[in-house]
Amino acid sequence: MLTFNQILQRIRQVTLSHNQVRNYYYGKPTDFLTDKTTQYVSVFLQDDGGSLNISSKIRTNKFKLFVLDLVNVSDDTLLNSQDVQSDCLAIAEDLIALLDDDAFSDWALLSDNNFEFLFEEFADMVGGVVVDITIRTPYTKDRCSVPV
Fold it and tell me: Which pTM does this prediction carry?
């Protein structure tokens, strides 16, 4: 059974293996986007709770995966924003494919992953996509292993 930390570590490794991703952060994007040291394309992973299903022996961990890049502010800012969103969606699709690799037999990525486009101004003008992902792992309700 994977621990929460092992799940986070695997997502980090998979994300940073993508050649277009320059930075990976865990936490709320607003904690990092106000810092002018962020290099783009950046991926931010924010946990979004989860559940333990005792009858089906499954734990789910929900996350929001943000893929963001700089938007060139100019006369064509809207067009530039659309280009950035398109590129970030392609990177997010790559990451979903990598996270859903059959080599990971100890977890399953749920097949339905909703996304929405973003265009925000923080310290930088950024655009991109946020994808809701859910990772399912076995949950063994083993009272014998509880340190009581």
Answer: 0.90
